[in-house]
Amino acid sequence: MKTPICHRLVVATFCGFAFFITNALAAPVTFVVKFDESVRKEPVTGRLVIYLNKASLHASPMHKPAEGFVEEDPQPIFGVDVTNAKSGDAITVDDSATAFPRKLSELPVGKYRAQAVLDMKDENSAWQREAGNLYSDVVAFDTSTAGVTPVQIELKRVVKEMEPKGKNVEFVQIRSQLLSDFHKRDVYLRAGVALPVNYDRNRSYPAVYEVPGYGGDHRMAIYEAARRANRAKGSVAEEVAQNTFWIFLDPESPHGHTLFCDSDVNGPVGQALIKELIPELEKKFKLIAQPSARIITGHSSGGWSSLWLATEYPDVFGACWASSPDPVDFRRLELVDIYADANMYTDSQGKEFSGARFDGKVTMTTRDENGMEQVLGNHNNTAQQWDSWQACWGHRNADGNPKPLFDAVTGVIDHAEAESYRRFDIADRLRKDPNRFAPIFRSNIRLVCGEQDTYFLNEAVGLLKDDLEKADPAKRVNAGYIKLVPGDHQSVTESGAMKAWPTETMVHLRKAGHLKAAATTQRAP
Q: What residues does each domain of the chain span?
């Protein structure tokens, strides 16, 4: 779900806001941003964002402001739209810019580091992965109480196309006819494939399909291939590596993580995966084309995707391991009940809904999360977490962007729009059709979430767990389970429940008969 802004917006706010209020304010600061003809000859149109961090609060000067937020520091960001700006033109960022957490004139006196990004692509949730975007080096400045301080920033650098490369990993890209027809442009599906250790090309293998969390993509297969090569000898993890392909799917789109659900905005993403990409992978890599040989897994946004695919396509995926999923019950979209609550930002008593907590302390509100996204773009088109959810689960506006679930300024919820979200409410689907979904959960799905999840995702998981017990009160003994265990959004991955997954995987594959010896001992070069 949530990590820094190139993945998921995360920043400590409440504690950090104190220095915005108690410190002396600097004179109004403005930024003047330019780019040279040597960098780009054509005019530019896009969203210009200035990222700051307070230099004194960062131990490492290697951290660049535009790389993402540091949780202990509410780094300010400022955004403006740019239209047909030419080389040499001065683009001014001042108090008219969309700002978080405060406008520029309220910036406290101090030493800062700034970095500018001009995002022109709208292809991905991370500007660093969009070739052609412009960005600056880090510029240091010191505010003063005497007069306006114009900070000059030059967009000197261009994001380059990144070709994924790695040992014992292959990459697949195919044109999706389904998605290309929907969007009326070429759309591609991508996967990174980590090969089995001691790969035998004469053997058919089961496959583990992993949906990355927010900000991850198919290139994560490079790291999986490296981990596989270094598994402890004789360990269960090594056994998994020797007996499976591990395939990372690319969940990215112009509106962020697709969650691999067919949506009004993103199109038939789930169908494209099932009907186009998986058949191509099974042809190319001699995979076992049986549900029991297709495992789906993921954490965070990948966890939600895995649960959705496992329940929507049980005849494709025969087993699922999911952790810390995005909200699985929209009565707790984080802490908000979108069907009953009037406002996304405050409860009936006017208290702000919490959005994140670290070490037991609330550090971020739902209003904060959306305020940061507004800086990156104000048409529900930032490809960040909240905008991506609305693209996955909501309707499509006339401009092609997601219809807002709530007013971004006031937080007032559109309940007619909220009702349409029930199509993707995993717990609601279970409640309405227990005969269809309860057996899938009991036999196919293993779900783990931390009881102190950083983003309160345990709240929705707890509701889902209760609903499953009501839907199937006999509690039939089977492979599936839903477990709430000690841990937060990340530390849960070190829990005993999740460390048992490799063993559970091998039990599943052995029971399904997918661990047969290779026909020959010939190995891949």
A: 14-158, 331-423
